[in-house]
Amino acid sequence: MSKWFKSGTPWIWMTGGAVSLSLVAVLGLLLMIGWRGLTYFWPHTIYEWQLSTPEGERYTVIGEIHDREAVPVAQLRGAGLTLEGVTEDTLTRYLVKTGNREFVPLDFRWILETNIVSRSEPVNMAVIERSHNGNFYGYVERVQENDSAVSGDVREQLLARIARVDELNERMEDLQKGEIGSINHQLERLRLKQRKLDLDGELTDEALAAIQAEEEQLRADYKVLEKELFALRDEARRDSVVVRDMRGQEVTISLGEVLDVAWPNNMNLLAQTGHWFGEIGKFVSGEPREANTEGGVFPAIFGTVFMVILMAIIVTPLGVVAAIYLHEYAGKNSLTKIIRIAVINLAGVPSIVYGVFGLGFFVYMLGGSLDRLFYPEALPSPTFGSPGVLWSALTLAILTLPVVIVSTEEGLSRIPSSVRQGSLALGATKAETLWRIIIPMASPAIMTGLILAIARAAGEVAPLMLVGVVKLAPNLPVDGNFPYLHLDRKFMHLGFHIYDVGFQSPNVEAARPLVYATSFLLVTVIVGLNLTAIGIRNHLREKFRSLDQ
């Protein structure tokens, strides 16, 4: 036994077991998050309950089961329920999502099994997804055009007219974000141009007349586009659908606010799978609604990826240059040791401290100075003197800089000194040796540092709350208006979106599944970014493998 311990075999098994347990825990966590998040998009069965009150009154509830739990009978009796004739120790209660927010006081309600008289799954029960007020559950009675009933199959007519409204909504969105947005952007630039000329004392009558003429032309174009937009809105509101809800009353819903309709109780497995993929696609490509508790997360995905790429562009040259100086040029003295210790210690600074530094130095000091020097006409409204995507990327670049420096230095230290000496002996300068030999050989280590930097930066939230991220960004940092790349704009981030939905949402029950879905999406984005960087690193490793020979 002592020989077995001395051989080191037990420690190998212990290490392997610890790694296996860690891997199982990580995979289990990811599977749990993925399951809880992705099942949210599966079409759930819609039930119709006939319930009775303790006084004997009966009423109807329509909705989908959101959760269920077993509650001790003693706890229910302690809450004031009589529960006559109940002999069980526990009773099941269901958390039901009823929708129909404008007519029903509770979007979610608990139903105790003793109150259930009957439960059915009507095949003609429809789920109507709307742009506001959430889902609407009920029976589709008829489709109307200009308040007149439309003949023909109700479902076919409804789906065809929703497709028509979707096309109109797309045209309205393109009009608002395209031509109308461009005119608004040009009007703002004209206003700033006039103010700049006024501040510089160059606002002559001729310049003012030219600006006013251009402004009048833009406003005339705006009125034409506005008229077209209002016409499209009227077209979208032409049709409506009449639905009978759980109260037994008919409700008229304009198709202008209807996004989709489905009959989940009438779907087979193939239809359910297609609906599931469609809902995931809308979640990934759509914009958030209802205080981020519904809709998609595309702005958050775009903001996360854009900010991480911008951070990588900033941190890579800074980290590589710093590592090359420390390893290749700096002397082996106490100052260099202190700098290395400081770089290593920077990796342990809490991220919120970097956020405070970014807010004070980048936003207020550097951004405010840029505004006074280059954008005085926009003051007191800040341009770069307020949190934005540029300052967020710079803050995270400083946060991840130690990782890139340490990783690059380790890669440089693994390169034999004979390679440097051989290059210099053949007549190359030190700069040529670094550029053509050393940096290519160290590029896999540089990419390793970048991978670690991306993994950390993509999941950071605390510093971003101070330097650029917001709950809802009206515009993306990239659009069709000059200069096309707007680094001063605020942006959305998946990590902050998870925090906002999970802890700041006015409807906790509705938001809970989206927390899991967004968390799984964030992990997927980070894994995708890392796999891309790993692929580049492996390519570089194969490309410069001959230099190691």
UniProtKB/TrEMBL annotation:
UniProt name for this protein: Phosphate transport system permease protein PstA
UniProt KW keywords: Cell membrane, Coiled coil, Membrane, Transmembrane, Transmembrane helix, Transport
UniProt keyword annotation of Signal present: no
Ranges in coiled-coil conformation: 208-235
Subcellular location: Cell inner membrane; Cell membrane
GO biological processes: phosphate ion transmembrane transport
Family affiliation: Belongs to the binding-protein-dependent transport system permease family. CysTW subfamily.
Superkingdom of origin organism: Bacteria
Gene3D superfamilies according to UniProt: MetI-like
Keyword 4Fe-4S in record: no
Pfam families on file: BPD_transp_1
Residues annotated as signal peptide: none
Domain ABC transmembrane type-1 intervals: 301-533
Membrane-topology annotation of the record: Multi-pass membrane protein
